[in-house]
User: Fold this.
Amino acid sequence: MKLQSLIALCVILVCNTLAYSQETEIEVRTKALNLSEQQLLTEASMYTQDGFLYFAEILTEKLLSKKPESPNYNYRMGFLALEIRKDHLAAIPYLEKAVKSISANYDMYSTREQDAPTDALYHLASCYHLNQEIEKAEEYYTKFIAESKKNSELIPVAKLRLTQCEVARKNISTPVKVYLRNIGSPVNTEFPEYSPVVSLDGSALYFTSRRPWANGETELFKDETINQYPEDVYVSYMDFDSSWTNPVRLEFCLPVRNEATAAVSSDERKIYLYEDTTGFGDIYYTDFYHAKFQDIQKLEIEGVNTDDWETHAMMSHDKGMFFFTSDRKGGFGGRDIYMMKREGDKWSSPINLGPGINGPNDEDAPFISIDNKTLYYASNGAKSIGGFDILYSEINADGTWGESKNLGFPFNSTNDDIFYTTTIDGLKGYMTSFRNGGKGDKDIYEIHNDFLGVNNIAVLKGQIKTVDNKPIPEDFAVNVRLICIDCDEANSQRLIYPRLRDGVFMTALKPCKTYKLEYMNVTDDQIMGQDGFTTECTQEYQEIYKELLLDVDKRTIIIPKDTTPVETNDYPPLEFMHYFTYNKNVITTAEGDLKVFVESVGKQLKDGRESVTISIYSSASNVPTSTYVTNQNLAHVRAENIKKALTDYFENKPELKGKVTVIVGSELVQGPVYEKDAGNRDKYKPFQYVGLKTN
Assistant:
């Protein structure tokens, strides 16, 4: 091509992009009504190439109305549904029509082109993969590799996906035992919700949402390329009945700007964020003071933000390590996870965590456990069963990280599972996932397990209350100096800041050590009170609980005389899970684990607990049921049956009557797509259950 022609083409493309960015949805819909088929096709193709996918979809919908059976136009609609909303279920019918006639010499600008490109085979395979139809996915990935041009950029991706299909088949046949639920309203909506960060005690959930502002302020700032509102950060708090309160948008959010959660400090006084105003993704932060989170600031830790893409970050709970994600040069490919270590008042240079964790594809969203021994992160590489999966790596004795492992199915699905964070004990977590039956294109899920708990660690849980039961005033800052009497000098003391909303403070401890606590008035750096304790010499997880009163007027701390370690809260939460066989829905309180559960609840009430709320979570698989007509009905019946059993049990005992409230938290239909294999119990049983937990 001559230089003049090349320059002219570049000018046309730039002008088109600028023009599209100034168009409105109304103007594009007017085009859809008035343009000829050739004009519609040309405009839709240019919108697609320039990334204005939502505008392309509007015009493609009009094209499809003209020729509903066109493989070309069906391909476009399927591709756009997948790219804009990740909606594989909506895309499948279009792509199934598209692959009936494909061509390796596809002309996207010609109305005479009736065929779909060979890429349609790849995208249909991807949809089947996301929908957990593994055999169909393998069939169409293989067809795509065989029939596409050998220089196609999607061939290496298709080969990776075939590897993931093998991993999926293995993991689906040997599911791990977990309890997973979509947390539903009011956190999840029809809009995307993602990147959840749960507080250490599980009482607060910070997350990102693309929901509109109630007063319409964000209407002018929608991303027209994908028809989504800007990202904002919200927080929801756990209510007394174990439900989540209505989310509150945090003060620093602007209608014109994207802000997304990355991590929250243990004291919830600092939030790390992802923001892309500069054109490159960077890590920002905001601090809480003057009763609100301040405007965001770019993180100034040297070596973190670059001219490349930094997407996620987390500070370890002891503030000794900082993890972040970057696609900078010198990595293993795509986005890699890096770590920095605190060296006195400075940070080390970034260290790539190496091939045991990072690979040629993308790694993202690192999260470190309270004991700094287990790193959770997301990867879309060869260890995934599809899309991003949550992997974990454990630290070796020499400080290096071991080979990562997949957390298994149904912890991970064949779709994207990402942004995993846990409560302090590691047994409950929250993550983002796109699963069948969700409320939006991304939803937040709660997941329980019995195999990821932290061990060989003690945890200090304390709370500073005021004598008048009011929040701690901000002008009277209190912190806790933790001093280990018999630890290494380098780790002998640290400062802990209580949460301002409720005075709670938490930190990790070492077993078999003696600690001193100094409660400090930050204003004058004076010690208001001292306390101490010794952790037990055990490999088991243990908790030390401290509660004290702050007299704001007298500037004094009232410390209880008893300073002996307390292993757990007075009334720890109780949980129960039961997995049903096909169509079964009744269990009895007279025997088995349910009998143990209700007797444990009764014991807490007899020991002095005033009341208990039991939440029910029921599920049915996708295996059809003629008995109950729909699986949703079956899930409902399972919930109602156990609710009645629990209510009858407690109301028929005079000493417990009126003290137990039973509520239904969720009734789900979930799990793999039915493939006429109802006898495959290992495949469907993990999704046929009722779960219980107390507040």
User: Anything to note?
Assistant: Residues 1-15, 563-569 have pLDDT under 50 and may be disordered. The radius of gyration is 28 Å.
